[in-house]
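Annex B, item 7. Sequence and structure tokens for protein A, then protein B.
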Amino acid sequence: MINGKKIVLTGCNSGIGLEVLKLFLEGNNKILCVDKDTDKLEALGSGKIIIMKKDVSSKEAVDEIFDYALETLGDIDIFYANAGYPYYEEMNYVDWDRVARMFETNVFSPIYSYQKYVQYLNGRKGIFAITVSAIGTMAMPGFTIYSASKFAMHGFQQGLRLEKPDNVQLTCLYPIATNTNFFKAANEIEFKKPFPVQEPDIVAKRMVAGIESGKDLIFPSHLFSFASQLMKFVPAVRTIYWNLEKRKFARFKEKVKAIKETAEILKK
């Protein structure tokens, strides 16, 4: 159990972040909870949490988070950059801003948060945690931009380990598809989730245990860990898996096409 810590946790109104928060609340911790939606946080009614309604996707927002954390907590023992979101779509458009928005949240915000945190620690010990994603090691059809953002974070943490100061513990989470509102955020049109799917409470338990024990990387799905090693030695297994996921994506594209055609008919 993590106990007696001052914690900043972003993206914790739902999904993995909310389950992690529930585990933090088991200890005598004080947590600044940052999310652009706060209804579930408010429903918890816990005196251990301070709620900050904020979109983390800008430099100014991150600066405000640190200022408010120091004002309300007085210290930051753990900073967990969990906020992030996906797109599930076909890469058949030209839109600089749409791509930039995802990278601002999924990449720039956690990187800048790390920079701020190390500066704040000034040599003192602290823990910085990031939700990367298994998709940051193996891209998936339909998630091209999201995969790119998570590959960026995978590269960031990998390089950082070669140069980070010894006073900073860096713990990174690599969940597979998780049974949360993640997929609703990815596209309002329903689609079949990638295989396999894991429950968020299991992911959260393994992440919190990993933070407590000082682990570098957390892969909460044992099946993914096994499959990753298998695919290294038998690449055909990855090809078969990708083909299965491509079929799901093809069915999704057909559904999108049918919806658009129906909409056009109704306009006439």
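Protein B:
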Amino acid sequence: MRKPIIAGNWKMYKTVEEAIALVRELALQVEDVTDTEIVVCPPFTALDAVIEAVEGTNIAVGAQNMHWEAQGAFTGEVSPFMLKEMGCRYVVLGHSERRQYFGETDENVNRKVKAAFSYGLRPIVCVGERLDEREQGITEQVVKTQVERALAGLENSRAVDLVVAYEPVWAIGTGKTASDEDAQQVIGFIRDLIAGMYGSELAEQVRIQYGGSVKPDNISGLMNQKDIDGALVGGASLDAGSFAGIIKYRGR
């Protein structure tokens, strides 16, 4: 059975002091949670402090991006080796904001996915369609291209530890969310894609999240869908009470 994974993407919010305060408060509110994996993804500047603050808790830490090289003349970049050395366990790759504002391509995401695994990091690979693509009826085509290119050449032994986050771009930070049924339809489609690439047995082990305006009042309906294994949470993860409410869905 797949263990749910709920991750908070803090984006470009929280100073070091604010990040420490948030994660300490969160840890107190979710200390009794054992059946859901909890991840927080602070900005780079707060990673070290947050990793230290969550030591001994049930909260793991991830980064929001990385370069695919271990080192080099890449001004402003952070390598997978550096993240692993700090104590990161996860890294978010291919987020729509990286694609939209910083020219992230499927090919670069693929490089980063392979590099993450090479250094012992688990990638959370984001895919999803824009509003105009949904209105054109090409959601599955867009998602298929993103998944296949992001995972191209990835070995079965590593693909099994992959996390995929389906985030329809039109639902990120807008207050809109896909219906439970729509989210399930696309996430089920992604699982079928992975089955086609790696076999159905492996596909049943891969965890697939939903992201896009996830809140305490809509998480239960999403999590009741058979193929949705968690959430990649944006704004609601910036408040300990709100994020804890999402993590403790179904009254655990």
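Comment on protein B: DSSP finds twelve helices and eight strands in the chain.
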